[in-house]
Amino acid sequence: MAEREHHDRGGSRPQRRDDRAGGRPASGGRGPRARSATAPSQRTKRAEPTRFAAYTLLRSVAEGGYANLELPDILRRHHLAGRDAAFATELAFGTIRWQGFYDAVIAQAAGRPTDRIDPQVLDVVRLGAHQLMGMRVSTHAAADQTVGLSKVVAGAGAGSFVNAVMRRMSEKTLEQWQEAVVLEGGGVDALAVLHSHPQWVVSALRAALLGHGRATAETIDTELEALLAADNDPPRVHLVARPGLSDVDELLSCAQACKSTLSPHGVVLDSGDPGSVAAVRQGRASVQDEGSQLVALALAAAEVGPDVPDRWLDLCAGPGGKAGVLGAMAVQHGADLTAVEVTPHRADLVRATLAALTRHAESVGQRVEVRTADGRDVGTDEPGAHGKVLVDAPCTGLGALRRRPEARWRRQPSDVAELAPLQRALLTSALAAVAPGGVVAYATCSPHVAETRFVVSDVLKKHPDVELVDARPLFTDASGAPLDGLGDGPYVQLWPHLHGTDAMFFALLRRR
Ligand SMILES: C[S@@+](CC[C@H](N)C(=O)[O-])C[C@H]1O[C@@H](n2cnc3c(N)ncnc32)[C@H](O)[C@@H]1O
Predict the structure, then answer these.
(1) pLDDT (tens digit, 9 = 90+) per residue, 113-140?
(2) With a 6 A CB cut-off, is 394 part of the ligand 1 pocket?
(3) What is the pTM of this model?
(4) Rounded mean pLDDT of 45-54?
(5) pLDDT over 80 at 218, yes or no
(6) 211 and 326 fall within a common domain
(7) Which terminus of the chain, N or C, has less C-beta within 10 A?
(8) Which DSSP string corresponds to 345-390?
(9) Cα–Cα distance between 127 and 93 in angstroms, integer?
(10) Number of domains in the chain
(11) Which of the listed residues 316, 326, 371, 391 should we mutate to test ligand 1's pocket, taking the one with most ligand atoms within 8 A of CB?
C-alpha cells in the first residue's frame, strides 16, 4: 500500500492530557501539522481497501451491528489479512471508541453540530479524525484517503466539505483540540469529552470506584482518569487452555504468545489470529479475558461442605466462555456441569463451545450438559440439587467497554434499572438451587454498584440462611500469590487500569 510507511499502531489513540504534563508533545511527537492545501479535485477518487473496510464496519454498527461480530466477515470480503487487517481493525475500533471526542472536534471544524452532517459523510470524517489524531498516518495521506473515500460513498459533492474539515482538523495539534473542545467547569462533563465516554457512564464509573472502595475523595480524580483511559486502550487477546483438554505449553508452542501473569491456564497473544491455533479451533482452548478466567477458577476453588452434590451449575451460560473453564474444572473435581441459557441461539453457541469438553467428560464417565431454559425456574425445579452455582448475570457490561467499542454509545442509564429485577431473580433462583453447604458465585462484567453490591445485599436480606464469604483469597495470580487491589472484601472487584482485566465483580455466598 502506498502509504504503508505511515502506518504505526504504536500510537493508536489520542494522547491523554497527563502526557502533556510530562512534557511529551502531542500526536506522537509531531508538532502542529502542516496545512494540507491540496484541492479536492487533486485528491484520489478511489477508496483504499483498509479505509473502505473500516467505513463498512462503522456503517454496520450504525445499523445496529456489533463490531466484534461483523469484523471477521468484513475483513474477509475486503481480502484483508495481516498488517492490513490490523490497520483496518484499529481504524474502525479506535474511531468508534473515540467518537465522542472526535464529534466535538468535527463540530468545531465543520462549524455545525454533527447531527447536521450526513451520517455517511460523518462516519468518513470520523475515520479521518482517527487517522489524524489517533494513528500516525501522515496528514497528506489521511486527507487524501478520507476525501477519496467520501467521493466513493457519498458522491463527488461531499469531497469539498470533507477536504475543508480535514484541513481545519489538521491545523491544530491534538493538545490544542483537547483545549478547544473541553467543557468549561471541568468535572464529569469535561472527562466525558476528553475520554470519549457518555456522561452517565463517567458518573457511574466514578460512583463504582468510590462504592467499591477503590478510590477516596482524594484519589478519585486520578483513579477515574486512569480507568477511562484504560477503556480506550485496545485490549490484548488472551487465550485460556481448558484444564484437562489443553495446557499453556501447548498454546505457547503453536502461537506467538507469552504466559499470563494472572491466570495459570492463560496466555497472552503477541500477534496472529487465535483461529490459527489448533487447540482453539478444536474447542480445547478459547479466547477469554483473564478476569473471566479468574472468576471461573475462583468458584472452582471455593470450598463446600462435605455432603454437597457433585453437580455444578452455570445459570447464565451463553456463549459459554466461563462454562468452558468451570466445566473443565468440574470434570477434574469429579463433578458434572449443567449449563443453562435462556436464548436458544446462545444455548447453541454454548453447545458448540462445550462440544470437546462434553466428549471428554463422557470419556471419563461424567456429564457436561447444556439446557435451553430460564435460569429463574431452576431453583424451583431443582431445589438444593447443586454444589456450586455460577450466576454470571446479564448486565450493562460497563466493565468491558474496551472490548466492545460501540457498547458505551448504545447502553442507556435505564438499562441498569431494567436489568435489576432479572439479576435479583437469577441470584434468588441460584440460592434455591444450591444445597446446604454449597456456594453461589454472583458475577458481572460491570462494576456498577446497582448491578453488583446492591443486588447481593438486597437478596441477602431475604435469605437469613445464606452468608457472604470473603472471596479475596480465591483470587491468586498465575504463581498462586494473592492478587493486589481487590478491595476491602468480602467482594472482589477487578479493574482494567489496575489488573489489566475487564472490570469483573465477584461475590461468593454460602448456604448454611
Ligand atoms: C453475561 S452473559 C454470560 C456470559 C457467559 N457466562 C460467558 O462467560 O460466556 C449473560 C447470559 O445470560 C443469559 N440470560 C439472560 N436471562 C437469562 C435467564 N433468565 N436464564 C438464563 N440465562 C439468561 C443471556 O442470554 C446471556 O447469554
Answers:
(1) 999 999 999 999 999 999 999 998 999 9
(2) yes
(3) 0.91
(4) 90
(5) yes
(6) no
(7) C
(8) HHHHHHHHHHHHHHHHHHHTT--EEEEES-HHHHHHHSTT-EEEEE
(9) 10
(10) 3
(11) 316
